[in-house]
Amino acid sequence: MATLKDIAEQVGVSISTVSRVINQDDSRRISEETKQKIWKAAKALQYRAPQAAKQKRNSRPQQSQPITSAHAVGCILSLPDNKYNHPYFSPIIQGIEAKLLEAGTSLSFLHTQAELKSEALFDSLLKSRNLSGIICVEGMEASQYKWLKERVPNIVGIDVADPAIPVISYDRMNAARIAVRHLIELGHRRIGFIGGAGLLGQLEREKRYRGYRLALEEEGLELNPAWTINAEWDADRSYTEMKRLVRTEDQPTAMFCASDMMGIAAMRAVTEEGLSIPKDIAFIGIDDIEFARFSTPPLSSVHIPKYEMGYAAAKVLLDGLDNPYPFPFRMLLPFTLIKRASTIAEGAT
């Protein structure tokens, strides 16, 4: 069965734009030409929207045949821009949509942190929809989150730090620790870090950085501030800062990257400077996005069950709508260390 993502890919627009058109959301201007393309694609793909959307487009019965659903569910991504095709978040969204589809419904809307900065959009978020619940991926700005919690009856988080709601996550700190221990077991003693701060804006409180630091402390290894790159989760900055680092005399022999995107960008900087991976500098990341297998060399990483987290979050939300949980809980899904050529040279064991 078709999803918002399928329509977005066929038309060449964002999932958010498709969501707005399907749900008659006029908080942002969308050209009539784009709207017609979306409705045409929805009809061709036999997209079936949730009941909340059906009530808004009685004038368009020929466009699609929505299914009947008692619940309207939205999703908010903690992204500073509108990159719905982000290689980490995309599998999470797919997992959410898959479970909702099994229950005979689909996402009523999908917005990013950046979009919610629009006061008009944020104010109309609940006024225009009778929301039953929201899946919040990796948190959001504190005042906005407080506003939503006061108005939405059910919220499920993915990787959020709120003990008052059900949360689906993985042990970020231990995943980072395992990744760094892999480097240590290979003999590395000069290990750097690339990543960014969390919503609190303090690198020292970010769990993957804490896991990196813990692994070093357990082995009595030096944590050199000169080898710490706060790229603010920006791949361009990871690239430029890694170039700067490898041009210094005091270089690490390995880098732990708190996301694969940071690692892939930094590896390019190293190879452009004429250094060899992993002979000169080894790299390991976290996430195990699809691109990690195709980088040069393939990037070692910690596989995070992204699709499964989205699927589980949607299931928890749907189950809780019909039978509220007696208390909030935190479900930690397992992760797996994936060893590739960025840490272990070809032919090595």
Would you write up a description of this structure?
With 349 residues, this protein is an alpha/beta fold. It has 2 domains: 4-169, Response regulator (Rossmann fold, 3-Layer(aba) Sandwich), CATH 3.40.50.2300; 172-303, 3-Layer(aba) Sandwich (Rossmann fold), CATH 3.40.50. 39% of the residues lie in helices and 15% in strands. It has helices spanning 4-11, 15-22, 32-44, 51-54, 89-102, 119-127, 142-151, 172-185, 207-219, 235-246, 260-272, 306-322; strands at residues 73-77, 107-112, 133-137, 155-158, 167-169, 191-195, 228-230, 254-257, 282-287, 300-303, 330-332, 336-338. Helix 5 packs parallel to helix 12 (306-322). The longest helix is centred in the last third of the chain and has 17 residues, at 306-322. It is globular and about 60 Å long.
Which terms summarize this structure?
single chain; globular; Rossmann fold; six-stranded parallel beta sheet; 349 residues; 12 strands; 2 domains
Short description, anyone?
The protein is 39% helix and 15% strand.
Q: Compute the average pLDDT.
A: 85
* Number of beta-strand segments: 12
Please tell me the total number of domains. 2
CATH architecture of the largest domain: 3-Layer(aba) Sandwich
Order of helices and strands: HHHHEHEHEHEEHEHEHEHEEHEE
- Class of the largest domain, according to the CATH hierarchy? Alpha Beta
Break the fold down into its secondary structure elements and pairings.
Layout: H1 4-11, H2 15-22, H3 32-44, H4 51-54, E1 73-77, H5 89-102, E2 107-112, H6 119-127, E3 133-137, H7 142-151, E4 155-158, E5 167-169, H8 172-185, E6 191-195, H9 207-219, E7 228-230, H10 235-246, E8 254-257, H11 260-272, E9 282-287, E10 300-303, H12 306-322, E11 330-332, E12 336-338
Parallel strand pairs: 1-2, 1-3, 3-4, 4-5, 5-11, 6-7, 6-8, 8-9, 9-10
Antiparallel strand pairs: 10-12
Helix pairs in contact: 1-2, 1-3, 5-12, 8-9, 10-11
